[in-house]
Amino acid sequence: MSAGVIYMAWGDNAVQQAEESIRSLWKHDRSFTVMVVGDAAAGEFFNGHKGVEFHQVDIDPFDATKAKGYKFLAGRIKPLLAGISQFERTLYVDADTLFKRSPKIGFELLDRWDVALAETQTRSLVEGIAGIKECRATSDWVGSKHILYHNSGMIFWKKNERTSQLFDLWNEEWNRFKGWDEQVALLRALIRSDCMFLTLPHTWNCYHDRDSHLLHHWFGGGQARIEKKGKYRVVPAERPKDARKLVKVEIAPGRFAKCHEGDEEKVMEHYRKLLERRHV
Fold it and tell me: Which fold has domain 3-225?
């Protein structure tokens, strides 16, 4: 049974961040094929990359009439991904993500569920990220404005009639308002669909690296949604671990500190200076 990871990439920033995310995926698991969906420029970059398949979409997701930072309309593309994906089981992830472990743990959930995705980390309908009109209409329809919706930057799904219906409903719901945010439309589609979907904790797709279970997701900055090359996240190189063993140093009578072997004098001098300052 085939399983793969799919990305969207329009613009220099998204291309570079998708490449970085793919490297983080393969750092943990080289078994997954990747598909990148984007424009001709993205195709020029990714074609020929081993393990990466490219699918060109001629729909322009940018709307020049929108305000800066809101020109990229993911709702024009994301609902089409179920029809584009060649995989029996697919994981879609936004370009501005880094994998913390293999996504096998998510694909295994599809043994019992049609779809698995994480709740939003901070938002509910009352905060109106999708626009007041859409959020108000959705909260009236649901019967509550305090309901959490899902972060569409990570979606696991398996190919069947129910998920095909879900993505069609998502496309239909997004086209009602055609807003910058596509996630409230996804909430309505999930409720209307026959899918058995699992809501995962937000830590599966999380902004804070220390709390991230599967994905560290740099959402909110919009850096993967801009047309031109500019600032994008650069992951610092991991500092090499010090191979020296730790030893115990007596810094005062009955008081000890640990340091790497060979740094004993340096540590003792540091604590001597601290004591001197306290007595000045």
Answer: Spore Coat Polysaccharide Biosynthesis Protein SpsA; Chain A (3.90.550)
